[in-house]
Design a protein that fits this description.
The protein is mainly beta and 112 residues long. It has 2 helices and 9 strands; from the N terminus they run αβββαββββββ.
Length: 112
C-alpha cells in the first residue's frame, strides 16, 4: 500500500451533503442514478452519477446524508456534467454501499 502525507490528504475535500433529488440515469453505461446533493450555502447543490441501484431506490435516497469529494474537476458522463464524487464501498458482491456519517452534521462539513 502506498502511503501519503497529511498535506496530500488535506488536498481532498470530502464534505457532507444531503440528497435533495435522485432520479434514474438511463443514459449511463451501467445502472446509475443522478443525485442532486446539497452541500450547504458555501457550495450549494451539485450533481453526481452514482452506481448505487442495487441497494437503493431513488425515493429512499432523498433526505439522506452522503460523503462526497467536491474538489475533483467536473466530469462529463454521457449527458450529465458530474460536479462531485459520492463515496461508497463495494460489498462482497461488488454492489456499492454509500459512505455516510452516523450522526446528523451540518451540510458542507469537511471530513478531517
Amino acid at each position: 500500500m502506498d502511503t501519503i502525507g497529511w498535506d496530500d490528504f488535506m488536498k481532498v475535500e470530502l464534505r457532507v451533503g444531503r440528497v435533495v433529488r435522485a432520479e434514474p440515469f438511463p443514459e449511463a453505461r451501467k445502472p446509475a442514478y443522478v443525485l442532486h446533493v446539497d452541500f450547504g450555502p458555501e457550495l450549494g447543490v451539485r450533481k453526481s452519477s452514482a452506481q448505487i441501484t442495487v441497494h437503493y431506490r431513488p425515493e429512499d435516497l432523498v433526505g439522506r446524508l452522503v460523503v462526497a469529494v467536491v474538489n475533483f474537476p467536473r466530469k462529463q458522463i454521457g449527458p450529465l456534467m458530474s460536479e462531485c464524487l459520492v463515496t461508497g464501498f463495494h460489498d462482497a458482491d461488488g454492489a456499492v454501499a454509500l459512505c455516510v456519517p452516523d450522526r446528523d452534521v451540518p451540510l458542507g462539513t469537511r471530513l478531517l
